């Protein structure tokens, strides 16, 4: 078994400020997406079956009708994204017992807006990160970016074991909703997605918060409740000829969502085989994994993951709970679930965990953890 070279010190989620019950969003979203007088049976069915009870939005729902073009939506993404990004990053650093000046690498992922200077550059000056902080803004990974970002942070810390690295994800999915667009993909997005930001702090093995003398990993933050998970290994996988299944069609109106109904089928047919092969390389099977941290793509995807891996019915409970309380927040969701695992259901020392997500490409990312 390879030695761990990074440990997760803290995770903090900042949910968008405007919280709504799903039932209170159905008609306003119908007003935005559907032409006057259109039949709303499909809209109602999608909202009822999305597995979502409440969601957080970047803006009050009544303000979305006034966002007439991509420029206005992107301006809102930048303004709210900076606020939520700062809240998430501040919270994670505080929980890890660190200051902004301690950060050596900041990876910042978002697929719901664009800016140059990027969010990370703007936050660096706003929050007091060092002028020599390494920055890596990432666009295009979508829902998989929470897992892939953690994997790339781990890669960096393997080569820079003295460093502190931070992953920040900011996703304001509601701002991409297209007006007067009754395509099923747009209606699914209007039923499923929510807004938020999350930050994860990771330490290299020699940074003062890696593996302790007892062989375990330690959070190092003032509120540490026990051993933090070490990252043991990662795996990326692109599925051939699936690029059309998930992503954006980008045009004059901004980001038009692509969500193909074939995604759960790809998961059922191929994902289990790749997960089992990855685990087998480390002498493990799915039965050895005590904690599953799975991005909640939607009810059909979660059911497909459960089926293809042969998991107990409650194995993905944390993902279902996150989906119900906050919707699918794209790259933020898997970190939101990881935070709840660390805070409320921290596994016993020695427990194996697997953090996983899927996204445009079509692709998957696996991160093997051990507490």
Describe the structure.
Strand 12 and strand 13 (363-370) form a beta hairpin. This protein is an alpha+beta fold and 371 residues long. The chain is globular and about 60 Å long. Mean pLDDT is 92; it is low at 209-225. It contains ten helices and 13 strands. The strands form three sheets. It has a nine-stranded mixed beta sheet with strand order 5-4-6-7-1-8-13-12-11, with helices on both faces. It has a two-stranded antiparallel sheet with strand order 2-3.
Helix count equals: 10
Compute the number of strand runs.
13
Per the principal axes of the C-alpha atoms, what is the gross shape? globular
| Low-confidence residue ranges | 209-225
Q: What is the helix fraction of residues, given as a range?
A: 25-40%
**H-E order:** EEHHEHEHEHEHEEEEHEHHHEE
The whole-number mean of residue pLDDT values reads 92
Structural class: alpha+beta
* Major sheet description: 9 strands, mixed
N→C terminal distance: 14 Å
Which percent range describes the beta-strand content? Answer: 15-25%
Q: Within the largest sheet, what's the order of strands?
A: 5-4-6-7-1-8-13-12-11
* Rg, alpha carbons: 20 Å
Secondary structure blueprint with pairings:
Layout: E1 6-15, E2 18-21, H1 22-33, H2 41-49, E3 54-57, H3 70-95, E4 105-109, H4 119-127, E5 134-138, H5 145-159, E6 164-172, H6 184-192, E7 195-204, E8 230-238, E9 246-251, E10 254-259, H7 263-280, E11 289-294, H8 299-309, H9 317-326, H10 332-344, E12 352-359, E13 363-370
Parallel strand pairs: 4-5, 4-6, 11-12
Antiparallel strand pairs: 1-7, 1-8, 2-3, 6-7, 8-13, 9-10, 12-13
Helix pairs in contact: 1-2, 1-6, 2-6, 3-4, 7-8, 9-10
């Amino acid at each position: 078994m390879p030695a761990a070279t990074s440990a997760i010190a803290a995770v903090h989620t900042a949910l968008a400020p405007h919280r709504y019950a799903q039932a209170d969003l159905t008609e306003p979203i119908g007003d935005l997406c559907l032409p006057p007088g259109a039949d709303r049976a499909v809209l109602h069915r999608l909202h009822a079956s999305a597995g979502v009870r409440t969601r957080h939005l970047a803006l009050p729902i009544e303000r979305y009708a006034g966002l007439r073009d991509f420029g206005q939506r992107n301006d809102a993404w930048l303004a709210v994204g900076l606020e939520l990004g700062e809240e998430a990053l501040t919270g994670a650093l505080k929980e890890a017992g660190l200051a902004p000046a301690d950060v050596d690498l900041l990876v910042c992922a978002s697929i719901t807006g664009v800016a140059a200077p990027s969010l990370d550059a703007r936050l660096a000056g706003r929050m007091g990160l060092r002028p020599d902080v390494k920055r890596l803004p990432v666009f295009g990974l979508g829902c998989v970016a929470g897992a892939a970002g953690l994997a790339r942070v781990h890669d960096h810390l393997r080569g820079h074991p003295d460093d502190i690295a931070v992953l920040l994800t900011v996703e304001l999915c509601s701002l991409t909703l297209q007006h007067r667009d009754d395509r099923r993909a747009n209606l699914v997005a209007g039923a499923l997605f929510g807004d938020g930001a999350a930050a994860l702090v990771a330490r290299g093995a020699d940074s003062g918060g890696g593996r302790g003398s007892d062989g375990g990993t330690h959070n190092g933050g003032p509120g540490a409740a026990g051993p933090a998970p070490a990252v043991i290994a990662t795996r990326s996988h692109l599925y051939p000829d699936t690029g059309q299944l998930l992503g954006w069609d980008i045009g004059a109106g901004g980001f038009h969502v692509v969500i193909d109904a074939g995604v759960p089928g790809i998961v059922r047919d191929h994902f289990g085989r790749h997960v089992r092969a990855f685990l087998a390389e480390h002498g493990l099977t799915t039965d050895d994994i005590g904690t599953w941290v799975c991005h909640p793509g939607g009810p059909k995807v979660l059911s497909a993951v459960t089926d293809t891996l042969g998991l107990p019915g409650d194995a993905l409970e944390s993902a279902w709970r996150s989906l119900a309380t906050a919707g699918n927040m794209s790259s933020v969701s898997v970190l939101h679930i990881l935070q709840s695992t660390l805070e409320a259901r921290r596994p016993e020392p020695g427990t194996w965990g697997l953090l996983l997500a899927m996204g445009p490409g079509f692709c998957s990312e696996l991160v093997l953890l051990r507490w």
